[in-house]
Each structure stands twice: as C-alpha cells, then as structure tokens.
Amino acid sequence: MKAMIPLRQENQRRIYLEAKKQVNDIFIRRCLDLDTVVMWILHRRFGFGKDRCRRFYDEYKPTTGTFSEMYGDAKYAVMREDLLRDGIDIETWVNEK
C-alpha cells in the first residue's frame, strides 16, 4: 500500500487552479469546434452567406455564453419546451441512434 503524503493547502490550491484552467481551456476549444460545425452547416448546407451567418452568430453566442458562465441559470429546458411546441423535439433527435 502506498503512503499518502498530505499536500499543503497552498499546493492543493495551485493544483485546483491548474486543473480548473485546463478544463476551461478544453471547454473553450470544444465551444469553438461546435461553433465551427454550426456555421459550416448553415453556410454549406443551407446557403447562409457571411452576413447571415454573422447575424445568426450574434444571436447564438450570447445564448450559449450562459452555459459557460452560469449553467444553473441557463434556460435550456424552456428553450426545449418552446421548440417542442413547434414540433421540434431536439431531445428525441439527440437520443436517436
């Protein structure tokens, strides 16, 4: 059995902050990847031009920003219910194989 060496509080804090930074860096990269896929589909598949993509992005980004800032306050359930009223069941689509 390996002996555990207790870490000083300052070292624990440094490790925590570094882990938090790495998670944030990964999250930012994944957001960029997702934004890229959305813009590519709108542009290539639906014919959105540069200006229309930009208008979409300017509406889209503040909404997704809520996720990274305060996930608990995000209104995703409300948005899903709104879409569902219009026959858009995104939850079912996500769970389809």
Using the CA coordinates, give the radius of gyration.
20 Å
Helix content: over 70%
Amino- and carboxy-terminal Cα gap: 44 Å
Task: Tally the helices.
Answer: 4
Order of helices and strands: HHHH
Report the count of strand segments: 0
Query: Approximately what portion of the residues adopt beta-strand conformation?
Result: under 5%
Main beta sheet = none
**Shape verdict:** elongated
| Average pLDDT rating | 84
| Number of separate domains | 1
Overview of the molecule:
The chain is mostly helical and 97 residues long. The protein has one domain. It has helices spanning 9-45, 50-69, 76-85, 90-95. Helix 1 (9-45) runs antiparallel to helix 2. The chain is elongated.
Which keywords apply here?
4 helices; 75% helix; 97 residues; mainly alpha; elongated
